[in-house]
């Protein structure tokens, strides 16, 4: 039986770095954000459907995330329309990925894992976490990030303390070597279980 490990964490907590560490150890990782990115790109499966529902969101044959953000800010109904289109496509991609990857451990990198109740179908959940000042430094170092944007993103995400309380596993992402050691230890623990 495959152990489905959900990987999540708030913005700037080191989720992408941790996901890469699982990949380096040979563990298959499904990345929800990357899937959505592909669906929105030119030729992506979501483009024609979004074009039919929200034509002003399409630029040069691809979905413009910036325009979508603007449209959602102006009209909250846009989010609902978008979810109706995108969620089934993402779910189908995830199902195909899980059919192809049936080893003892698969990681599913899902940014809004708790916010979308994904924990209900996962075997266990790993939350990556770092102190608030490190988190803020990392996010503010991103190109074009403003204090205002950072606050807006934070207000939409479940607080880190709540995520950690709901998690089955927590890995601190302050020092890379420590994170890598913790990832290897968790892989050994989860793949060593025969009745996971």
List the helices and strands and how they pair.
Layout: E1 3-8, H1 15-24, E2 29-31, H2 32-40, H3 46-53, E3 58-59, E4 62-63, H4 65-74, H5 77-100, E5 105-109, E6 124-129, H6 132-140, H7 147-156, H8 160-166, E7 169-172, H9 176-191
Helix pairs in contact: 2-5, 3-5
Write structural notes for this entry.
The structure is a single chain. With 196 residues, the protein is α/β, with parallel strands linked by helices. It has two domains: 121 residues, 3-Layer(aba) Sandwich (Rossmann fold); 66 residues, no CATH class. It contains nine helices and seven strands, in the order E-H-E-H-H-E-E-H-H-E-E-H-H-H-E-H. The strands form two sheets. A five-stranded parallel β-sheet has the order 2-5-1-6-7, sandwiched between helices. It is globular and about 50 Å long. The termini are close together.
Query: Mind telling me the CATH superfamily name of the largest domain?
Result: P-loop containing nucleotide triphosphate hydrolases
User: What would CATH call the architecture of the largest domain?
Assistant: 3-Layer(aba) Sandwich
| Percent of residues in helices | 40-55%
SSE ordering? EHEHHEEHHEEHHHEH
Coarse morphology: globular
C-alpha-based Rg, rounded: 18 Å
Structural class designation: alpha/beta
């Amino acid at each position: 039986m495959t152990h489905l490990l959900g990987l999540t964490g708030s913005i700037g907590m080191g989720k992408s770095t941790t996901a890469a560490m699982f990949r380096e150890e040979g563990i298959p990782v499904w990345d929800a954000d990357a899937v959505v990115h592909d669906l929105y790109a030119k030729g992506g499966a979501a483009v024609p459907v979004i074009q039919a529902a929200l034509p002003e969101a399409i630029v040069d044959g691809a979905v413009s995330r910036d325009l979508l953000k603007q449209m959602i800010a102006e009209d909250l109904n846009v989010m609902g329309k978008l979810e109706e289109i995108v969620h089934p496509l993402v779910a189908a991609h995830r199902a195909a990925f899980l059919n192809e990857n049936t080893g003892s451990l698969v990681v599913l990198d899902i940014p809004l894992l708790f916010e979308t109740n994904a924990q209900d179908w996962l075997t266990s959940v790993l939350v990556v976490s770092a102190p608030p000042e490190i988190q803020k430094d990392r996010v503010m170092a991103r190109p074009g990030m403003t204090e205002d944007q950072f606050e807006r993103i934070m207000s939409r995400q479940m607080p880190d303390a709540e995520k950690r309380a709901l998690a089955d596993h927590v890995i601190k992402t302050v020092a890379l070597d420590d994170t890598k050691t913790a990832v290897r230890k968790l892989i050994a623990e989860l793949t060593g279980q025969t009745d996971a």
